Amino acid sequence: MAACIFCRIIKGEIPSIKLFESEKTLAFLDIGPLSKGHALVIPKYHGAKLADVPDDQLSEILPTLKKLVNATGATDYNILQNNGTIAHQQVHHVHFHMIPKPNETEGLGISWPSTSSDLEKLKAYAEELKSKI
Question: How far apart are CA 30 and CA 7, in angstroms?
Fold first, then answer.
């Protein structure tokens, strides 16, 4: 997609601070970092959401994220991947954030609005999901 900012970065039309590149994957520093070492890892294959990208195009993503974690020396960090506008995805090309969390104020700050659930309903839903996997 010509209008996709990440596709344009892959093509070299927009500069980036590359950290790692292979045939399938690109990793680069985030230009609006939440902490030192905040990086993005993207498949070179354009897909708006995770389910849009073929499995073989995702095979290097986790190993690359792990390389970044090791390179930064982060002991606490978040790996974040959003799908869809209401899930906070701003660039509609699959991407993963590796965000070091060096202290309470730097890095990703999140709340987790969990709720309690009925165990029998959870089990029934698990069976439904398992039948589709």
Answer: 15
97: domain CATH number is 3.30.428.10
Q: What's the distance, CA 96 to chain centroid?
A: 2
Enter the pTM of the model: 0.90
Q: Give the domain extent around 118.
A: 5-131
Ranges under pLDDT 70 in the chain: 1-2
Catalytic-role residue among 38, 92, 95, 97: 95
pLDDT tens for 27-62 read: 999 999 999 999 999 999 999 999 999 999 999 999
Taking a C-beta distance cutoff of 8 angstroms, is the pair 37, 31 a contact? no
- Considering its fold, how many domains does the chain have in total? 1
CB atoms < 10 A from the CB of 108, how many? 15
Instruction: Based on the residue annotation, tell me whether 95 is a catalytic residue of this protein.
Output: yes
* Positions of E strands within the chain: 18-21, 25-29, 39-43, 77-80, 96-100
- Interatomic CA distance for residues 59 and 55, integer angstroms: 7
Residues in the chain: 133
Q: How far apart are CA 126 and CA 49, in angstroms?
A: 23
